[in-house]
Amino acid sequence: MPTTQPSPVVPPDDLNRSHTLARPDSDRSLPHIGVAGGTYTITVPGEATAGRFSIIDMHIPPGGGPPPHRHDFEETFVLLTGEMEATFRGQKITVKAGETLHVPANAPHHFKNIAAQPLRMLCICSPAGQEKFFMEVGVAVESRTTAPPELEPAQRAAFLRKVQELSSMYRTELLPVS
Fold first, then answer.
1. What would the pLDDT profile of 102-160 be if each residue is shown by its tens digit?
2. pLDDT digit string (tens) for 158-169?
3. How far apart are CA 30 and CA 22, in angstroms?
4. How does pLDDT run across 37-79, given as a tens digit for each residue?
5. What is the pTM of this model?
6. Residue 82 domain-assigned?
7. 3-class DSSP assignment, residue 140
8. Is 112 a domain residue?
9. Which residues pair with 172 in a beta bridge?
10. Residue 130: helix, strand or coil by DSSP?
11. Dist CA 42 CA 122 (whole Å)
């Protein structure tokens, strides 16, 4: 005799939560942060999703991208414009506009803009929290496409020390450059 599964119950609408509409090119209240040579705009912070995920609009100049790292949360990149070389567990792949790359939690990875023009992509982190790390280590800039300030050697060393000090708090590990 077949058994039937009970229907899942969908909780009632939480009227304390609201929708989020991000306009990164015109909304000056959105945080635009210079990090690792790129500009990251937090369009949907974890507070808007009850910590389930965050969305970061990334503007990466030619040659830009973070160093090798890994973290214990899921990360998905949706390329809107441009082209990047992503290294996932030591294997290089090319990701182009219109494509999506998902990186599972804990997997070593990094990426680099290999095109002659800036790339733009959406980064979805689940659960949320990475956006707080970027806000803590980065520097505020004027707009979604404003380049971060060039760092003098002493400033760069201080930035790297801060990243190293805070990375474990944000469940991130920087890896050696190979």
1. 999 999 999 999 999 999 999 999 999 999 999 999 999 999 999 999 889 999 899 88
2. 988 999 999 999
3. 8
4. 899 999 999 999 999 999 999 999 999 999 999 999 999 999 9
5. 0.91
6. yes
7. strand
8. yes
9. 71
10. helix
11. 10
The encoded tokens of residue 136 equal: 């803590």
Which whole-number Å values give the CA distances from 56 to 70, 125, 131, 144, in the listed order? Answer: 17, 8, 7, 11
Burial class (CB in 10 A: 0-12, 13-18, 19+), 177: exposed
Pair 95, 77: CB distance under 8 Å: yes
Q: How many domains does the chain have?
A: 1
Would the pLDDT of 4 be above 80?
A: no
User: Which secondary-structure segment (H or E) carries 119?
Assistant: strand 119-126
Q: Is 78 exposed, middle or buried (0-12, 13-18, 19+ CB in 10 A)?
A: middle
Q: Is the peptide bond before 62 cis (omega within 30 degrees of 0)?
A: no
Residues 137 and 135: their CA atoms lie apart, in Å, by: 6
Instruction: Provide the sign of the torsion angle of the four alpha carbons 22, 27, 30, 31, taken in this order.
Output: positive
Q: What is the CATH number of the domain that holds 147?
A: 2.60.120.10
Q: For residue 141, is it within any domain?
A: yes
Please give the pLDDT value at position 22: 96
Q: Does residue 137 sit in helix, strand or coil?
A: helix
Looking at the predicted structure, is the pLDDT value of residue 2 above 70?
A: no
**Helix/strand/coil for 163:** helix
Phi and psi at residue 7, to the nearest 5°: -70, 135
Segments forming the whole domain that contains residue 92: 32-171
